[in-house]
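STRUCTURE:
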């Protein structure tokens, strides 16, 4: 009886188990069929809106600035060279590197002994020439007197000859006496010729003496110049550089001893492109005397000077491009020749232009304008000038509109954006700060220090925030939510 009861109970439990398994299989099958038969639900796509910085377009008159790099130099630079060879002596105290000298100041002297001796000999030759000139003048005067006396003798001899002829005609004289008188006249005339030759010689001596005196005078002047060349003087007021002298040094002729630079006549030479050069010309094709600002950057401290555009180079130069310009500097305090400077030059004013950030214009000279419903539109513009990080543009239908200040590859025509204006409400608000009690601060610090799963960098950053007098409220809420408090 017991056996039958237990058998029936086991059979009941087995039947119940099989029924439950069959029911579960039916439920799984129905669920799978319902899942396979239902239509897939696609989530509704939302349009992505980009936040962009925008700037307003305002047209007006702008004076562009041309920036270039140049080198400061002096309009007057003189090399000091020894005109003659010899030993240097009498060096000036200012004849050193960086020494300031005045115009005409004696800087050094080459030993003048030989030049002084040559000058003395030349002066002696001049004295000899003067003596010869005076002696020749006296000889000329005597020759003239002798010629006059000889001419008087001829006149007397001719009178005697005429008298003998008269006597011969009256049969008082003799032919021999007439012949003797004729011979005397001939001798007197020969004496006149001799005196004329002597006079010509005396006159030639005068000319020779004058020529010798002129040569002696030239020799003395040349000797004086050589003596003057032994002195090295400053031709103008300036500063010395590249000085290479010492007292007692033996120098050769034309040897370079240093250079003299006029720091009061500084100018800057800089090169610009041909297009920029064309914008600096007036209607007559001449260079405008525009104002120039020269800046020297000395480890963050700028030294500036004002100047005026003065001239341009006559030729381009081999291997060069553009145009070389020169600008004279006014009161260039602190500048030295050789300084590498930045030159800023004001160009003619441009009308009806707008200044935009350079990032707002792409390579095709196009900008993105915010249109209706805050959607972007592509507008063509004309870039007039580039001014550092800005550009000057001209365009139609942009007055008063807003353009994207910073273009990215994600932006294009038709994209909806959220304009962020300078000083607008879109600026992010400052995070809320909390002042914690010492117990609350200690509890938060203990939780952070006991958290082993937090990265070391994040733990250090959060502990640094908790150490401040005021802690961001968002940080406190996030930590307490993890603590369960």
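SEQUENCE:
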């Amino acid at each position: 009886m017991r056996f039958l009861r237990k058998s029936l109970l086991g059979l009941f439990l087995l039947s119940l188990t099989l029924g439950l398994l069959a029911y579960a299989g039916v439920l799984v099958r129905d669920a799978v069929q319902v899942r396979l038969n239902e239509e897939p639900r696609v989530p509704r796509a939302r349009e992505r809106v980009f936040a962009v910085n925008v700037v307003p377009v305002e047209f007006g008159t702008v004076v562009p600035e041309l920036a270039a790099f140049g080198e400061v130099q002096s309009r007057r630079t003189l090399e000091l060279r020894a005109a003659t060879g010899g030993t240097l002596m009498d060096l000036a105290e200012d004849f050193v590197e960086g020494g300031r000298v005045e115009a005409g100041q004696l800087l050094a002297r080459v030993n003048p002994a030989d030049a002084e001796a040559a000058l003395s000999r030349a002066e002696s030759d001049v004295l000899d020439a003067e003596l010869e000139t005076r002696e020749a003048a006296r000889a000329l005067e005597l020759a003239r007197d002798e010629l006059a006396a000889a001419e008087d003798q001829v006149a007397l001899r001719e009178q005697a000859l005429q008298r003998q002829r008269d006597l011969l005609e009256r049969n008082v004289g003799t032919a021999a006496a007439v012949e003797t008188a004729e011979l005397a006249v001939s001798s007197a005339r020969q004496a006149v010729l001799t005196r004329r030759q002597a006079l010509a010689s005396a006159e030639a001596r005068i000319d020779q003496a004058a020529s010798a005196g002129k040569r002696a005078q030239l020799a003395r002047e040349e000797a004086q110049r050589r003596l003057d060349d032994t002195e090295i003087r400053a031709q103008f007021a300036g500063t010395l550089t590249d000085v290479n002298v010492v007292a007692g040094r033996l120098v050769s002729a034309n040897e370079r001893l240093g250079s003299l630079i006029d720091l009061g006549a500084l100018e800057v030479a800089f090169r610009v492109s041909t297009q920029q050069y064309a914008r600096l010309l007036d209607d007559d094709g001449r260079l405008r005397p525009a104002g120039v600002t020269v800046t020297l950057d000395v480890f963050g401290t700028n030294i500036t000077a004002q100047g005026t555009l003065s001239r341009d180079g006559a030729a381009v130069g081999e291997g060069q491009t553009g145009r070389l310009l020169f600008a004279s500097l006014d009161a260039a305090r602190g500048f030295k020749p050789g300084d590498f400077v930045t030159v800023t030059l004001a160009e003619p004013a441009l009308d009806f232009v707008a200044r935009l950030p350079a990032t707002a214009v792409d390579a095709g000279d196009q900008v993105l304008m915010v249109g209706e419903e805050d959607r972007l539109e592509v507008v063509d513009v004309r870039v007039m000038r580039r001014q550092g990080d800005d550009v000057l543009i001209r365009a139609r239908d942009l007055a008063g509109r807003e353009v994207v200040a910073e273009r990215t590859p994600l932006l294009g025509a038709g994209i909806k954006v959220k304009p962020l204006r300078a000083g607008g409400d879109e600026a992010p608000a400052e995070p809320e700060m909390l002042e914690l009690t010492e117990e609350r601060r200690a509890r938060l610090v203990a939780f952070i220090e006991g958290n082993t799963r937090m990265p070391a960098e994040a733990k250090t950053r959060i502990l640094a925030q908790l150490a401040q007098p005021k802690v961001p409220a968002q940080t406190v809420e996030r930590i307490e939510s993890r603590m369960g408090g």
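REMARK: The longest strand covers residues 301-312.
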